[in-house]
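User: Hi! I'm working on a homework problem where we have to compare a predicted structure to a textbook description. Could you give me the structure for the chain below?
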Amino acid sequence: MSNQYDVVVIGGGPAGYVAAIRSAQMGFNTLCVDRFKGKDGKYSLGGTCLNVGCIPSKALLDSSKHFDHMTHSYDVHGISFDNAKMDVKTMIARKDKIVKQLTGGIGQLFKANKVNYIGGSGKLLKDRQVEITNDEGTQVVQANHVILASGSVPISIPNVEIDNEYIVDNAGALDINEVPEKLGVIGAGVIGLELGSVWNRLGSKVTIFEAMDTFLAACDQGIAKMAARTFKKQGLDILLSTFVKSATVKNGKVEVVYETKGEQTTEVYDKLLVAVGRKAETDGLLSDDCGVTLTDRGQIDVNDDCQTSVPNVWAIGDAVRGPMLAHKGSEEGSAVAERIAGQHGHVDFNTVPFVIYTEPELAWVGKTEEQLKEAGIPYKVGSFPMAANGRALAMNEPTGMVKLLAHEETDELLGAHIYSANAADLLSECVVTMEFKGCAEDLSRIIHAHPTLSEAVFEAAMNVDKRAIHKAN
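Assistant: Happy to help. Predicted structure tokens:
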């Protein structure tokens, strides 16, 4: 294998592998180096997202959703089951099969696009040299351009030591082999809510500890409050303003000491999931003399075009500023490859969609009402309840709403917030509208098929100007 490349990408997650493929498509001799190892101990492309994040968690969410519907909601359809059971080991095996299929698929995409790949740890040296270390030894390659896509790792907290048997991180929570009677979760963010929902649906009594006073502070608060009520009905016990002081494994259980508004409590759980967020992964990535600088938050310092402090060295994905989302990293990967080729790669942080894959799903893009008020931007609101949507009722999924925010004077769509079944998919037309600086009226002038869930977006857009048909304005 050559030791000279046009582009070397360090990291094979959604940011890195997309950057590598797009670079190769642009005609560059490209190498991708990635050190992630799967459950079998072998190097595995796809990073956290495909191996222990986005994909496996959705597989478990889907399996647990079917079981939950069997035991709680199919009766309204006239469907009944006797003694429905969940084989957790089969559920986990299905998840692992999907992961293997998709991670293996990236290898096939690399071959099809002529991307070179080495499994191992990559370190940036000075003058755009990359040191690669694996079981076969160490080698150094030279690159005209280097793209750093090292991803992120879970944040740990004091006095809570993860062993991935009793006290688990997101990866460990994906491989619990039986339903815990009691599950504690630290953090009411995306990971905590999604994985907490999985085990709650399967019968675990789940308690979520959240340090913040506000539930889902980044979300529109009208939507967040609706979601909180639904989670409570589903059996999730979410404790706000609560700090876990310590967690200790004793006799095969986890003793958790937590404090809520000055009152300290001790509870025992079968498992404890730590999901308090993630931080940029830069350990072992940069030599002392490579010239790349970090921010005070430990992220790789980049400008708006993802350029680092060193010419022709770029950084993307979770390792840099911006939301830690797979699709954000992928778009940065494509954009950087295009910039290297002299084109104008584009990523608009204002139109990055956010999704929490609970049931119903929460999905949003753009500004919240709270942000618009704080910025002094005049706006108008249009909303529509899923309970008035024919397709939602036919699906027995009437919970939730669509809420759109438009500029009061120009009608430009500024934000979209959806809490419903399939909210992630419904959000896409709002993202497109915002990307093209469209208006709420533009959405309301598009014919939507009937009956569909997307009609709720259509009606909410009409309600911005108080002309919805199926809602009293």
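For your comparison, note the following. The chain has a mean pLDDT of 97. The two ends are 67 Å apart (CA to CA). Good luck with the assignment!
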